[in-house]
């Protein structure tokens, strides 16, 4: 691939353009918002100049509702040898394209499973997709050359290709992406009118659950509007669990011992099913879930402290598999949780204590 066109210079489009430009591909940027194109160009994502002839690949990075129209316009103008989109919903846009009567042999639907709470070109980065799954949804009509161009794009962005049926993809993302967004927003909405005293008690748990609630509502309305059925099905199952859990909690207040036992059983059931589901979430590098141990260390909030503790862990010969920071409310300190292999816990704790760190049990 020597040339590409990116239609839509938001987070995903600009990040793909940055990755391609950084690897020597000439990228032509297109967007109805001229200011966003100028911003992406200034970041080094490509050029505002139109291509002199067909580019190798056109990447359509617009909201799902606009995918079919943008692709149709690009195809009719002969913009590229191959076309793909990166929308988070795949079945609907393809059916819209089929209804337009276009030759879809030169098109493949794709979806990079990466993103941020922030949107727009200023949030973009060339390494956004690195190590993330990038779904490809070819059909029997997809031209081999177009599939190869899509695979080359995935490789240049250092992502991991995953081939799926379009409708199966939409059901999958309803479960692992779209529903979590809504649930996160629903939990965060409870904080809106909460007493200030309660809000001040927010810890890492509520921060984890509500992190993605900071996402752009307009973007998510576009996404959810394109995949309402599968999302509603998942939410319906969650609603059933919520009803059962509410009944179990109310049973715990009963004066009858039998009802209380049923309540305990109901709560335990949903928690254990949650354990089982969480255990299926892929671990580091996409491998199976790993059972890491936590070494918790008190750390001050000043420049260089994180670098120092990572360096000290390296001197102990221990690899940090993952890391989290739990900030102390109202204090310039917090707990850094270093996730390591179980066999490394004792050695790392002892080494860090020797170097003056306060290791918590």
TrEMBL record:
Keyword hit for Oxidoreductase: yes
ACT domain ranges (all copies): 294-361
Any coiled-coil regions, as ranges: none
Pfam family, any one: PDH_C
Known catalytic reactions: prephenate + NAD(+) = 3-(4-hydroxyphenyl)pyruvate + CO2 + NADH
Single Gene Ontology BP annotation: tyrosine biosynthetic process
Keyword terms: Amino-acid biosynthesis, Aromatic amino acid biosynthesis, NAD, Oxidoreductase, Tyrosine biosynthesis
Domain Prephenate/arogenate dehydrogenase: 2-289
InterPro entries hit by this protein: 6-PGluconate_DH-like_C_sf, ACT-like_dom_sf, ACT_dom, NAD(P)-bd_dom_sf, PDH_C, PDH_N, Preph/Arog_dehydrog, Prephen_DH
EC number: 1.3.1.12
One GO MF term: NAD+ binding
Pathway where this protein functions: Amino-acid biosynthesis; L-tyrosine biosynthesis; (4-hydroxyphenyl)pyruvate from prephenate (NAD(+) route): step 1/1
Similarity comment: family membership: Belongs to the prephenate/arogenate dehydrogenase family.
Protein name: Prephenate dehydrogenase
């Amino acid at each position: 691939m020597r040339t590409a066109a990116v239609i839509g210079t938001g987070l995903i489009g600009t990040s793909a353009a940055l990755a391609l430009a950084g690897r020597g591909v000439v990228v032509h940027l297109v967007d109805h918002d001229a200011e966003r194109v100028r911003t992406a160009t200034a970041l080094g994502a490509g050029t505002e100049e139109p291509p002199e002839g067909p580019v190798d690949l056109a990447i359509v990075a617009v909201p799902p509702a606009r995918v079919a129209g943008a692709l149709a316009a690009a195809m009719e103008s002969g913009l590229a040898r191959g076309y793909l989109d990166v929308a988070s919903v795949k079945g609907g846009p393809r059916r819209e394209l089929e209804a337009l009567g276009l030759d879809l042999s030169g098109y493949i639907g794709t979806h990079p499973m990466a993103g941020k709470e922030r949107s727009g070109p200023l949030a973009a980065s060339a390494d956004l997709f690195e190590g993330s799954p990038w779904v490809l949804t070819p059909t029997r009509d997809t031209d081999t050359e177009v599939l190869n161009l899509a695979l080359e794009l995935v490789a240049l962005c250092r992502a991991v290709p995953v081939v799926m049926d379009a409708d199966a993809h939409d059901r999958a993302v309803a479960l692992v992406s779209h529903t979590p967004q809504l649930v996160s927003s629903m939990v965060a909405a409870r904080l809106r009118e909460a007493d200030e005293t309660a809000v001040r008690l927010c810890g890492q748990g509520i921060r984890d659950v509500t992190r993605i609630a900071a996402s752009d509502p307009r973007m998510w309305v576009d996404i959810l509007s394109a995949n309402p059925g599968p999302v509603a099905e998942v939410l319906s199952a969650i609603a059933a669990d919520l009803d059962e859990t509410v009944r179990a909690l109310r049973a715990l207040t009963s004066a009858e011992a039998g009802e209380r036992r049923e309540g305990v059983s109901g709560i335990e059931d949903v928690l254990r099913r949650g354990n089982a589901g969480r255990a299926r979430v892929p671990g580091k590098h996409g491998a199976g879930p790993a059972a890491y141990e936590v070494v918790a260390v008190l750390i001050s909030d000043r420049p260089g402290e994180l670098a120092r503790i990572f360096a000290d862990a390296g001197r102990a010969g221990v690899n940090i598999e993952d890391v989290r920071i739990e900030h102390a409310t109202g204090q310039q300190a917090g707990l850094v949780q270093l996730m390591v292999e179980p066999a490394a816990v004792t050695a790392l704790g002892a080494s860090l204590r020797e170097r003056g760190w306060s290791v918590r049990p």
